[in-house]
Amino acid sequence: MAFTVGLIILAFELTAARIVAPYLGSTIYIWTSIIGVILAALAIGYSWGGVLADTRKKPEDIILLLIAASAVIALVNIVKEGVLHSVSATDMPLQMQAFLASSFLFALPTILMGAIMPYLARLNITELATSGRKLSRIDAAGTVGSLAGTFLTGYVLFGFIGTRHLLILFAMILLFISFLLPSGKHLGLRAGMAGFLLIFYLSAPSLQISGLIQEIDTPYSRVIIRSLPYDGRAVRVLQTDSQGIQSGIYEDGDQGLALAYTRSFSYVAEIKPDAERHLI
Fold first, then answer.
1. Residue 242: pLDDT above 80?
2. Are 229 and 235 contacting, i.e. CB atoms less than 8 angstroms apart?
3. How many whole angstroms separate alpha carbon 129 and alpha carbon 54?
4. pLDDT the model gives residue 211
5. Does residue 153 contact residue 219 with C-beta atoms inside 8 Å?
6. Where are the beta strands (DSSP E) in the chain?
7. b/e 132-165 (16+ beta carbons within 10 angstroms → b)
8. Which of 53, 127, 131, 232 has its CA 20 to 30 A from that of 189?
9. Cα(20)–Cα(121) distance, integer angstroms
10. Residue 259: how many CA atoms within 13 Å on its side-chain side?
């Protein structure tokens, strides 16, 4: 269970960057905000989970934490496009936009997942003589899970599943591992949650970006195809974040170069037509 929770935490962090990119970009400000918010949320979760474990020490609390984390991640998947659209439309500096969006969307799920780890450690300790080894096993399992989540998400899941469905997949996994505990508590709640997650998976929301034609998850980045007015004409463009256009074509069939920066290449070539090499 510690391995799987650790896996989901890091997979969630990497996915958070892809969720934010179409609206706020993928600059160092974005990564700084996401990493900072998630680290702070983990610290809060660890602290709260430790207090909860000492106070209650009930295995069924782990089930409730997993259900809650699963539900909040599903909620994030529903509201994320609206939140990011609203935040990106403000006049706040990019740093503040990134921090607010990260805090609103990614803090609470991470707090809930962080609270599970110390609770697992507390339940696993039965005698003082072996407490060090048991604590180290929990920590090691969580860390190995985080490594697995990093490589699995970065190398496989982004290109294979896509960002729209990853959050619901994470929510499903958290709900599934609640059955690893030998407790029959909250079976009705878990079954109902599983049904809702299936519905959410099949109806994942699209980006709230003007002129959107298609979004494509690739192993490298999240690609957005849009139709935009450019120099008074309709142009179909490709973007990997909100900060710039990578390429574009006219939608009326004109084979000319649509974007100013690509036209500049031909201008340079026309200056000296017989030149064999150019430095641009």
1. no
2. yes
3. 19
4. 87
5. no
6. 212-217, 222-230, 233-239, 247-250
7. eebbeebeebbeebbebbeebbeeebbeeebbbb
8. 53
9. 33
10. 14
At 39, the pLDDT band (50, 70, 90 cuts) reads very high
What integer is the mean pLDDT of 234-241? 90
The closest of 111, 105, 128, 99 to 40, measured between CA atoms, is 111
Residue 57 to residues 26, 125, 135, 276: CA-CA distances in angstroms? 41, 11, 16, 76
Three-state helix/strand/coil letters over 153-189: HHHHHHHHCCHHHHHHHHHHHHHHHHHHCCCCCCHHH
Q: Is residue 195 exposed (0-12), middle (13-18) or buried (19+ Cβ within 10 Å)?
A: exposed
C-alpha span between 43 and 13 (Å, rounded): 15
- Among 97, 79, 107, residue whose Cα is nearest residue 23: 97
